[in-house]
Amino acid sequence: MDWIDTALYPELDTPPQQLLTVDDQADFIARMCGAWDFGIYPFPETITEVRKPKWREAVDRCQLRTSHTYYLLREWHGLSPLAYLGFVPAYIRDDPYLSQV
After folding, report:
1. How distant, in Å, are the alpha carbons of 27, 45, 84 from that of 95?
2. CB neighbours (10 Å) of residue 32?
3. Are 51 and 71 in contact (CB under 8 A)?
4. Nearest-angstrom CA–CA distance, 71 and 67
5. Distance between CA atoms of 81 and 27, rounded to whole angstroms?
6. What pLDDT score does 60 carry?
7. Average pLDDT in the chain
8. Residue 2: band (very low, low, confident or very high) from pLDDT cuts 50, 70, 90
9. Is there a contact between 65 and 83 (Cβ–Cβ < 8 Å)?
10. For a 10 Å CB count at each end of the chain, is N or C smaller?
């Protein structure tokens, strides 16, 4: 499949060509979000794919609550917000407008 970025699987000699189970999809979501959080953007085809309704369960199962990108995926799928567990720098932690960013 053209939308699977095989570079997200550096530990595998043969990256997956299909993601058949929800667990495989959730693993892919975690890998994609981790890369995206560090500025390695997914293919446009990948974004189109993971926004499809069939990915909703995998996005919810992933629970990558330290990833900014993960919260974007939750929003795209209409999932309820979760508490963010990532790092919030001290200089903005007490900003009254932080929740509006």
Report:
1. 34, 37, 16
2. 26
3. no
4. 7
5. 20
6. 96
7. 89
8. confident
9. yes
10. C
Cα separation, 50 vs 73, in Å, equals: 8
Closest CA to 58 of 85, 26, 82: 26
Q: What is the largest CA-CA distance in the chain?
A: 48
The tokens describing 90, both together, are 């001290």
Predicted confidence band of residue 91 (pLDDT cuts 50, 70, 90): low
Neighbours of 10 (CB within 10 A): 8
pLDDT tens by residue, 18-45: 999 999 999 999 999 999 999 999 999 9
Is residue 32 within 8 A of residue 46, CB to CB? The reply is yes
What pLDDT does 93 receive? 64
Tokens of 41: 């953007």
Quote the pTM value. Answer: 0.82
